[in-house]
Design a protein that fits this description.
alpha/beta, Alpha-Beta Plaits, Rossmann fold, Glucose Oxidase, domain 1, 3 domains, 6-stranded parallel β-sheet, Peptidase_S8_subtilisin-rel, hydrolase, serine protease, protease, S8pro/Inhibitor_I9
């Protein structure tokens, strides 16, 4: 065993480091430097150091002394990015290849792994789950009363009604976090519901010191973090809808829980070093649960930063809930499947957003639609032409007669070299009165964009519509929108 009084580079340290080239845009590291995360055995910290941060910074200083030629007017010095002490013990640092080689010479056993790109992975949910505010599991759990949920994501939009503190008691005294001010975000935006807000982007800046962080605060410019936070712990917000669809009272699964947000995803990118820093701080602040909706694809467990940091959080008594990912249902598509992580998958409810198609012969067909306006397409002519029904080019749709007053039918794109999203694109540009899409592609339900009046129906219903159009001298149709149904209706 090495002496605990020796220099940091004389220690027999066991660490795992990995190369962070990846963020959402896969930017290249600048100046031939990369960010590494180094795991250390905390018990080996020499007594001469007051704390782990001093130990880590001393290690970086020793590298500067060992490789002095690496610092000149063309190259920056090795830099400590973060010190970690809650979910892992170690640090992240920006190092050149020469400095990494110097670190290898410090009698250290190590391995280096390179990561691929990160992947990002409703008011009716509680009703669908049969959660009743008056009886059963929900009131028995106190609606999540005083549970502190740390949401690691793209930040939060604090003005949302979901984050008001109506009916919330004082903040638990055990809470140790902060409400960090920044761009368009001040401490007054935190309250008894949103009790903490912090942000982490040193990894982005270490990768490219010239980058300008456009929203250098916990404010959400993407929407994903706000969405996740409201699902987990949104307060009761009455009178909400999606452009008239699904009206009701929005609430999270734990509406009386506290929220603390840790932003590590920025428009300028995201890095593993920032994620680990966010998890580290969340545990230190005293959260009970960490929610994270990100993950890596196809990497071994021992390289997975979320899995490694989640294990450390578990050892501190903090539950980590992570998304299963947006891929599937093929084999090997599950993300965040470590046994110490609560892996959460999304699914469909029995609710449908709809538009009703009424043909001129009186037949009514319910189709899927999210067209965001109370439009009313009444008794408009319908055409079906096998060639035009591909709906896959501007040139093709320019042949539609009187497009602004005509409803056309677009055939199922399955098996062809175009898809429903491209059909959406071209029919919007054609400024058609409305469109009847025939499709059984389940990906259509992932779209929140419906820019042209229309409905999506399956092949069976599509055949009924086509038969009517072919057999009628002057086929017409009426479409109404902003309808919401559940299976029992």
């Amino acid at each position: 065993m090495g002496s605990r009084m020796g220099l940091p580079y004389c220690l027999h340290l066991l660490f795992l480091s990995w190369f962070l080239s990846a963020h959402v845009f896969c930017l290249l590291a600048v100046a031939q430097r990369s960010t590494y995360i180094v795991h250390l055995d905390k018990s080996l910290m020499p007594n001469i150091f007051a704390d782990h941060h001093h130990w880590h910074s001393s290690t970086i200083d020793s590298i500067k002394a060992t490789v002095p030629s690496s610092v000149d007017r063309f190259h920056s010095a090795p830099k400590l990015v973060y010190s970690y002490d809650s979910v892992i013990h170690g640090f992240s640092a920006v190092l050149s290849q020469d400095e990494l080689e110097a670190l290898k010479s410090y009698q250290v056993r190590f391995s280096i792994q390179r990561y691929n790109c990160w992947n990002l992975t409703t008011p009716y949910t509680s009703d669908f789950l049969k959660l009743n505010p008056s009886s059963g599991l929900w009131p028995a759990s106190g609606l999540g009363q005083d549970v502190i949920i740390g949401v690691l994501d793209s930040g939060i939009w604090p003005e949302s009604a979901s984050f008001r503190d109506d009916g919330m008691p004082e903040v638990p005294k055990r809470w140790k976090g902060i409400c960090k001010p920044g761009t368009q975000f001040n401490t007054s935006l935190c309250n008894r519901k949103l009790i903490g807000a912090n942000y982490f982007n040193k990894g982005i800046l270490a990768n490219d010191p010239t980058v300008n962080i456009s929203m250098n605060s916990a404010r959400d410019t993407d929407g994903h973090g706000t969405h996740v936070a409201s699902i987990a712990a949104g307060n009761f917000a009455k009178g909400v809808s999606h452009f008239g669809y699904a009206p009701g009272t929005a609430k999270g699964v734990a509406p009386r829980a506290r929220l603390a947000v840790y932003k590590f995803r920025f428009d300028e990118g995201l890095f593993t070093s920032d994620l680990v820093a966010a998890m580290d701080q969340a545990v230190a602040d005293g959260v009970d649960i960490i929610s994270i909706s990100y993950g890596f694809r196809f990497i071994p467990l021992y390289e997975d930063a979320i899995s490694i940091a989640s294990f450390g959080a578990m050892m501190k008594g903090v539950l980590v809930s992570a998304s299963a990912g947006n891929r599937g249902p093929s084999m090997g598509s599950l993300g965040n499947g470590s046994p110490w992580i609560l892996c959460v998958a999304s699914g469909y409810t029995d609710r449908t957003f709809a538009g009703t198609l009424t043909l001129g012969n009186g037949l009514q067909i319910r189709g899927w639609s999210l067209f965001p306006a109370r439009a009313f397409v009444r008794d408009s002519p319908v055409i079906y032409n096998k060639t035009l029904a591909a709906c896959n080019s501007d040139e093709l749709l320019s042949q539609v007669p009187e497009p602004e007053s005509t409803i056309i039918i677009c055939d199922d794109s399955n098996g062809n070299n175009w898809d429903l999203s491209s059909q959406f694109f071209y029919v919007t540009r054609a400024r058609l009165r409305a469109v009847i899409f025939i499709s059984q592609d389940p990906r259509v339900f992932r779209s929140a964009s419906f820019s042209n009046p229309g409905v999506v129906i399956d092949k069976k219903k599509g055949k009924q519509v086509i038969n009517y159009v072919k057999s009628s001298v002057s086929p017409t149709a009426t479409i109404t929108f902003q309808e919401t149904y559940v299976d029992r209706e």
